[in-house]
Write a structure and sequence with these properties.
heterodimer, A: 527 residues, alpha+beta, Cell Cycle, Spindle Assembly Checkpoint Protein, Chain A, 5 strands, 10% strand, elongated, B: 235 residues, two-stranded antiparallel ribbon, 28% helix, cytoplasm (chain A), Atg13_N (chain A), HORMA_dom_sf (chain A), Autophagy-related protein 13 (chain A)
Chain lengths: 527, 235
């Protein structure tokens, strides 16, 4: 339950569960905490049937991964056990109630640490990932001056449980340094990236990041990432996390988070990120301890924690073959359809918006949903809501707060995501992908990518009221179309933004309106 | 069921019971943030002090309903909190906080006041004495309303108050974590002396909310009003 609460708190969406006066059997601690199956699976896997003990704590690590592949640990939630037994507590329901209180405190505290706000804003530029491991608590990744908050302690006859959170204070993103640090951690995680060893993809990341620092790099366009994402999706193993994460790494330049980028647009794919962050777990001693019923929820099950790919069930071995398979566009439709009926909660509401998003962005995005197989689809769906709304609301870099101040130089507000421009590294990516990306990009950016200064919205009034502008519409449109082309062709102008989908909307409308005019003219010629 | 009786209660802070612990939190907020800030704190406290509805069964055992939670985002503060999913409870709190806010605004004072959330137990007394209300936990939030001139200041205030509230929530949780005195789980006949059973979906401990507006001298004005959210109409 602890893990569920923590992870759900970092999904980036608001949680709402209903109180019911009549208890259902499955509500542990009398709290309505929905169980996300993959999270349960992950937790069970990590625990491998053991209970926390001295030196063997259960830790949930929350980290942030940017679209460029940089990651940073944000928080570590630890459930520790010490030897101090509280023999005086004889009544089991006291312990039960206190555990319930502990979970409530956890609910409250998870909204209070800095990572909550970050996770609510995840989407385009970054995602929040989680990782469960069982063993020694590793706080080194939190940077200097991290703070700790104790959620609560509960004494039991067999020991005292302490739940605490250590969270990072220093949110300045140290790119390369950070990155150098990651491989060791990734070493642990390496299992996760099923087919490609992470190190092979690491060289890519520094490039990406450095480029960014030079202001030349751009966030991979949404389309780009989508394509990449899609590809991996279609071929990736069932474990969602695996392919979202791995894919990013292996497809290279578009870093892991690239997927994520799209995800918001796609909605479904995003959900992976969350789950996918399970970058492994320490190879905990496999034991099939019988779960003590005292803490059933937390420690149930003894699962084989050997293989990461088994994360989500029917583990399909292998990672993400770089097959640039066409995104299963068709499947997306299915996916979307599946979304709606599945989770009646607020999740499904997001689905419609996800389709909007996909429209605005590009067709490639649609493929995303399609690839995952059924198992994943099911799980994805639950999270549609988590990320779909995000892109709509928080499209611009302007919404990013402090942690990305380091990125500020290259993230000018209102930068357009230029699909035409591929990140320098991307040549390595599968060319078919790039090809399609380009085409996607061009369609999207032909009229798009106008400087945001030229608010396309003004187009419409101008369009409808010729007399305002002392020029004809053709000239007007030509004028407005030219600048964007220039900027999109010049890679130096890092005019990129995460607001691509939103910005492209007026552009596309303008395009359509323009087309309408031509169509009208055409119709007239027919008569 | 026993008829409603008024409750001879203790004044806030004057813990008649020996075990009444008192916690005080202070916040400085803008006028428009008062409501959300108070709700955040009160809801957090009540989240910890509410259980599911009890269903007593024949053998003297009972089962407990489920408490749902939901996230609430604040409009005027960069903050979010978790509250119990109970519209009735939310309405009750909003009503109390609304009155507090109005009183603050209209008092003409410097905008200082405090709102108190008191958990009590009822102890039945024999006639002619009415029941006693014995508080066992008292939360007081002192509010200082500030007026800001520029939009930039307000923006900063949004963030700062958000951070402050984060600290307050942590404080609340720390207190909750001490696992100090809690009323014993009551039998069916006693449940109304410990819990507020009037809500449909959750069951908080018996509580009452009251507030005071402080005048500029720092003394508590006669407008000490006791708002009884729960039953306890005067005879």
């Amino acid at each position: 339950q602890t893990v569920q609460v923590i992870v759900q708190a970092r999904l980036g969406e608001k949680i709402c569960t209903r109180s019911s006066s009549s208890p259902t059997g499955s509500d542990w601690f009398n709290l309505a905490i929905k169980d996300i199956p993959e999270v349960t699976h992950e937790a069970k896997k990590a625990l491998a049937g053991q209970l926390p003990a001295v030196g063997r704590s259960m830790c949930v690590e929350i980290s942030l991964k940017t679209s460029e592949g940089d990651s940073m640990e944000l928080e570590i939630w630890c459930l520790e056990m010490n030897e101090k037994c509280d023999k005086e507590i004889k009544v089991s329901y006291t312990v039960y109630n206190r555990l319930s209180l502990l979970l409530k405190s956890l609910l409250a505290i998870t909204r209070v640490t800095p990572a909550y706000r970050l996770s609510r804003k995840q989407g385009h530029e970054y995602v929040i990932l989680y990782r469960i491991y069982f063993g020694e608590v590793q706080l080194s990744g939190l940077g200097e001056g991290f703070q700790t908050v104790r959620v609560g302690t509960v004494g039991t006859p067999v020991g005292t449980i302490t739940l605490s959170c250590a969270y990072r204070i220093n949110l300045a993103f140290m790119s390369t340094r950070q990155f150098e640090r990651t491989p060791p951690i990734m070493g642990i995680i390496i299992d996760h990236f099923v087919d490609r060893p992470y190190p092979s993809s690491s060289p890519m990341h520094p490039c990406n990041y450095r480029a960014g620092e030079d202001n030349a790099a751009v966030y991979p366009s949404v389309e780009d990432s989508q394509e990449v994402c899609t590809t991996s999706f279609s071929t990736s193993p069932p474990s969602q996390c695996v392919f979202t994460v791995t894919k990013a790494h292996f497809q290279t330049p578009p870093p892991v988070v690239t997927d994520t980028l799209k995800v918001p647009v796609m909605g479904l794919a995003f959900s992976h990120q969350l789950s996918s962050s399970r970058l492994s777990y320490q190879p905990a001693a496999l034991g099939v301890g019988s779960a003590d019923m005292g803490y059933p929820v937390l420690f149930a099950g003894g699962l084989n924690a050997a293989h990461p790919h088994q994360l989500m069930g029917p583990g399909k071995e292998g990672g993400v073959p770089p097959v640039p398979s066409q995104p299963a566009h068709g499947t997306q439709a299915d996916q979307e359809r599946m979304c709606t009926p599945l989770d009646g909660g607020h999740y499904s509401a997001a689905t419609p918006s996800s389709s909007e998003d996909t429209e605005t962005v590009s067709n490639s995005s649609e493929g995303k949903c399609g690839s995952p197989r059924d198992l994943l689809e099911t799980i994805f769906i639950r999270k549609v809501g988590a990320f779909v709304n995000k892109p709509i609301n928080q499209v611009t870099m302007a919404n990013l707060d402090i942690p990305f101040a380091m990125f500020a130089p290259k993230n000018v507000e209102l930068e357009d995501n230029d699909p035409m421009v591929n990140p320098p590294e991307s040549p390595d990516t599968d060319s078919p992908l790039q090809g399609s990306l380009h085409s996607e990009g061009s369609s999207g950016s032909s009229t798009g990518n106008t400087h945001d200064d030229f608010v396309m919205i003004d187009f419409k009034p101008a369009f409808s009221k010729d007399d305002i502008l002392p020029m004809d519409l053709g000239t007007f449109y030509r004028e407005f179309q030219n600048p964007p082309q220039l900027s999109s062709l010049s890679i130096d102008i890092g005019a990129q933004s995460m607001a691509e989908d939103l910005d492209s909307l007026p552009e596309k409308l303008a395009v359509h309106e323009k087309n309408v005019k031509e169509f009208d003219a055409f119709v007239e010629t027919l008569q | 069921s026993s008829p409603l009786r008024s409750c001879r209660g203790a004044a806030p802070g004057a813990g008649r019971a020996m075990n009444c612990r008192a916690e005080v939190l202070e916040v400085s907020v803008e006028a428009r943030q008062v409501e959300e800030a108070m709700l955040a704190v009160l809801h957090t406290v009540l989240l910890h002090r509410s259980t599911g509805k009890f269903h007593y069964k024949k053998e003297g055992t009972y089962s407990i309903g489920t408490v749902g939670t939901q996230d609430v985002d604040c409009d005027f503060i960069d903050f979010a909190y978790v509250r119990v999913s109970s519209e009735e409870l939310d309405r009750a709190l909003r009503k109390a906080v609304g009155e507090f806010k109005d009183a603050l605004r209209s008092s003409g004072s410097d905008g200082m006041g405090q709102i108190s959330l008191e958990f009590y137990q009822k102890k039945k007394s024999r006639w002619p004495f009415s029941d006693e209300c014995i508080p066992w936990e008292l939360w007081t939030v002192k509010v200082n309303v500030v007026n800001l001139a520029t939009e930039q200041e307000r923006q900063i205030c949004r963030e700062k108050v958000g951070e402050k509230l984060c600290e307050k929530i942590i404080n609340v949780v720390e207190v909750m974590n001490r696992h100090e005195y809690l009323p014993k789980m009551p039998t069916q006949s006693e449940v109304d002396n410990v819990f507020d059973t009037s809500l449909r979906d959750v069951q908080p401990y018996l509580y009452k909310i009251s507030y005071q507006i402080t005048d500029s001298l720092g003394a508590s004005v006669t407008t000490t009003m006791r708002r009884l959210i729960k039953d306890t109409l005067a005879l």
